[in-house]
């Protein structure tokens, strides 16, 4: 039997080094791939500040492993608050001329983010190795580890009314594995308990505990600053990313994709 009292007071978060991606010219493909494999993230330099550059960077960095690219999107924020650590994922299908067309996929395993327009101040990026976070929970918070690895949730139920989001719940655990053995560590603010889950109260408490524990990591993480045109490439199954609050206008382009290693 689960104890609700153990879910209300999260312990101190594990002490983890943040991920500071190495910077390398986009033309040095082998070095970029090695850094991405080692750290789960890399910053590519030397690209033009264009949407086409994202596609070229994806091809150069991931090569023949590429399987599906999703439409790039532009995100502009003005005098905005922080964006907490997260992993990109969504489940969005639209009707384009009578043909179902997927715009986002729950199992996007890589994301590329190009810095289009820097903020006047603030807006620095930060990232963390989610594998290290999960492994650290074995000693710091085994109850949360048990929840993330053993409890099904509806990943996007918080956004159930959004047009284009499938009505069928996307049932998954926060930590899972692909058929080839890659570990997935999800981080989304759309997760809710399954419909009529008898354990709903505990699930809600643990989702809140997950949020609090992750948010507590952020102040101590090292920051890194992208310059105009830089492309941050992330292993979306392994690394969570976020950014600080900023003043002025800040714009990025985002490209999500799936490779042959994706679920």
Automatic annotation (TrEMBL):
Pfam families: TauD. Residues 24-252 form the TauD/TfdA-like domain. Residues 1-26 are annotated as: Disordered. It comes from the Bacteria. SUPFAM superfamilies: Clavaminate synthase-like. Keywords: Dioxygenase, Iron, Oxidoreductase. The keyword GTP-binding does not apply. It is an enzyme of class 1 (oxidoreductase). The keyword Secreted does not apply. GO terms for molecular function: gamma-butyrobetaine dioxygenase activity. Its EC number is 1.14.11.1. This is Gamma-butyrobetaine dioxygenase.
């Amino acid at each position: 039997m689960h104890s609700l009292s153990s879910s209300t007071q999260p312990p101190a978060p594990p002490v983890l080094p943040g991920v500071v991606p190495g910077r390398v010219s986009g033309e040095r493909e082998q070095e970029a791939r090695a850094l991405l494999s080692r750290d789960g993230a890399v910053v590519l330099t030397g690209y033009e500040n264009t949407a086409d550059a994202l596609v070229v960077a994806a091809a150069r960095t991931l090569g023949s492993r590429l399987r599906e690219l999703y439409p790039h999107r532009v995100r502009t924020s003005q005098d905005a608050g922080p964006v907490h650590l997260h992993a990109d994922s969504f489940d969005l299908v639209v009707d384009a001329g009578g043909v179902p067309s997927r715009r986002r996929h729950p199992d996007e395993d890589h994301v590329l983010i190009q810095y289009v327009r820097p903020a006047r101040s603030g807006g620095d990026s930060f990232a963390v190795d989610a594998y290290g976070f999960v492994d650290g929970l074995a000693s710091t918070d085994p109850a949360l580890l048990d929840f993330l690895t053993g409890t099904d949730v509806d990943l996007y139920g918080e956004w159930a009314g959004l047009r284009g989001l499938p009505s069928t719940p996307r049932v998954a655990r926060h930590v899972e594995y692909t058929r080839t053995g890659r570990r997935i560590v999800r981080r989304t603010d759309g997760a809710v308990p399954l419909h009529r889950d008898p354990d709903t109260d505990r699930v809600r408490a643990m989702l809140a505990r997950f949020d609090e524990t992750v948010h507590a990591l952020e102040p101590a993480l090292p920051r890194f600053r992208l310059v105009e045109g830089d492309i941050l490439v992330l292993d979306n199954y392994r690394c969570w990313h976020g950014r600080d609050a900023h003043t002025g206008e800040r714009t990025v382009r985002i490209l999500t994709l799936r490779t042959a290693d994706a679920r």
